[in-house]
């Protein structure tokens, strides 16, 4: 609306100025002709011995002589428009046979009327533009009211039942087409999200049955007296793996539901989670000829407690990522503090152009393991976003990589 009003003001102003200028030029030309004829007529009467009857309006004599008022003497032959003492004079100067003849007309009232007409035109133009602006605003608001209503419905769409269609509330105009397009896109996304949630729930439900079988079988095996120390150790690893798988399923289900069920998890400190992950991954690091160590930061304040499965999932994926890409002879260091945890390695590092997308799903390094799908860091990012934690990466080619997680959970408790 403002653009169109500005354009209308520019065009109307130019047309008004052009019309006023043209009328002024035309009037000046006509007045020049009229006063030229008047000078010839008055001069003819004067030369014929007839009194022109125009005191203080008609002058004749030598050019520049005292026969003319002082303010008229400098005028050259031709038509002139002069303002003097609040009056507007039209003056015609004509020379004939060495004599100068000068005729004056008082056009004060005419000029005032002309100025008033010009101001009337300008006022009419301004009023028309103001009225057009007001009517345009009212019309625009009326036209955009359905769009504002649609925007409000879109903002509240998440609270509506699945497959709700907004287009049925609008006529088949542009707004209706926009609502139909939104319905189509949103409902497709809703179906895709629903399929993902159902898939995650189904997987979680179906995997719990074999996990229960593994756990019960481990309990039965533990009661047998024939197991030696090595067998007991292997059995303990199986039980730990089954427990870890159960915690991972709980984590995935929590992320799929989108709710905040983390308060239902057991809680532990970052240092405790780091010690557990060190024990779980040390054997893998040794098989790959790598060194995995733990450094616990000095704690001045009591350690804080966080959802244990989420801490373990984040640390586990960060450690796995370093073990996969750091390379043989590399050193991987886990650092845990009261409100942060960190995994650093001295491997080849990550190129700067890949760091922006490293947390995206299905993004893998240049030489990934056969079982790496590129989902570990994406899961880390999702867990951190869910919990309000912040994960950051610092890496340079040839200088290794450092992943740091600053823990800022909404509800944290000091360790007893």
UniProtKB/TrEMBL annotation:
Residues 141-194 form the HAMP domain. One of its GO terms (molecular function) is phosphorelay sensor kinase activity. The keyword Kinase applies. Keywords: Kinase, Membrane, Phosphoprotein, Transferase, Transmembrane, Transmembrane helix, Two-component regulatory system. It is found in: Membrane. InterPro entries: HAMP_dom (IPR003660), HATPase_C_sf (IPR036890), HATPase_dom (IPR003594), His_kinase_dom (IPR005467), HisK_dim/P_dom (IPR003661), HisK_dim/P_sf (IPR036097), Sig_transdc_His_kin-like_C (IPR004358), TCS_sensor_his_kinase (IPR050428). It comes from the Bacteria. Residues 202-411 form the Histidine kinase domain. Its EC number is 2.7.13.3. One of its GO terms (cellular component) is plasma membrane. It is an enzyme of class 2 (transferase). Its main location: membrane. It holds the Pfam family HAMP. The chain crosses the membrane at residues 119-139. It catalyses: ATP + protein L-histidine = ADP + protein N-phospho-L-histidine. This is histidine kinase.
């Amino acid at each position: 609306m403002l653009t169109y009003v500005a354009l209308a003001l520019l065009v109307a102003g130019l047309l008004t100025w052009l019309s006023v200028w043209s009328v002024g030029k035309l009037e000046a030309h006509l007045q020049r002709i009229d006063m030229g004829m008047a000078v010839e007529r008055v001069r003819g009467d004067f030369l014929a011995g007839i009194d022109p009857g125009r005191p203080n309006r008609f002058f004749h004599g030598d050019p520049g002589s005292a026969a003319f008022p002082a303010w008229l003497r400098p005028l050259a032959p031709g038509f002139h428009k002069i303002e003097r003492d609040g009056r507007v004079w039209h003056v015609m100067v004509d020379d004939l046979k060495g004599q100068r003849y000068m005729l004056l007309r008082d056009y004060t009232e005419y000029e005032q009327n002309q100025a008033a007409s010009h101001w009337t035109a300008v006022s009419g133009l301004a009023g028309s533009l103001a009225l057009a602006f007001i009517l345009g605003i009212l019309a625009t608001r009326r036209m955009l009211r359905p769009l504002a209503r649609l925007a409000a419905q879109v903002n509240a769409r998440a609270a509506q039942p699945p497959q709700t269609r907004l287009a049925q509330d609008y006529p088949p105009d542009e707004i209706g087409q926009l609502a139909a397009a939104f319905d189509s896109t949103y409902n497709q996304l809703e179906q895709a999200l629903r399929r993902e949630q159902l898939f995650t729930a189904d997987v979680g439900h179906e995997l719990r049955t074999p996990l229960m079988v593994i756990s019960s079988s481990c309990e039965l095996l533990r009661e047998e007296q024939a197991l030696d120390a090595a067998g007991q150790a292997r059995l303990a690893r199986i039980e730990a793996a089954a427990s870890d798988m159960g915690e991972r399923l709980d984590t995935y289900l929590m992320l799929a539901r989108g709710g905040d069920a983390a308060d239902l998890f057991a809680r532990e400190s970052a240092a405790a989670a780091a010690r557990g992950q060190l024990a779980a991954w040390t054997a893998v690091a040794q098989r790959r000829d790598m060194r995995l160590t733990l450094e616990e930061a000095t704690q001045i304040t009591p350690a804080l407690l966080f959802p244990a499965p989420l801490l373990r999932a984040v640390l586990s994926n960060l450690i796995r990522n370093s073990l996969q890409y750091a390379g043989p002879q590399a050193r991987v260091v886990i650092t845990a503090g009261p409100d942060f945890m960190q995994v650093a390695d001295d491997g080849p590092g990550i190129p700067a152009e890949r760091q922006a997308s490293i947390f995206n799903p299905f993004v893998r390094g240049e030489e990934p393991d056969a079982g790496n799908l590129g989902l570990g860091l994406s899961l880390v990012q999702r867990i951190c976003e869910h919990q309000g934690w912040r994960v950051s990466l610092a890496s340079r080619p040839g200088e290794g990589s450092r992943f740091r997680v600053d823990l800022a959970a909404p509800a944290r408790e000091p360790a007893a």
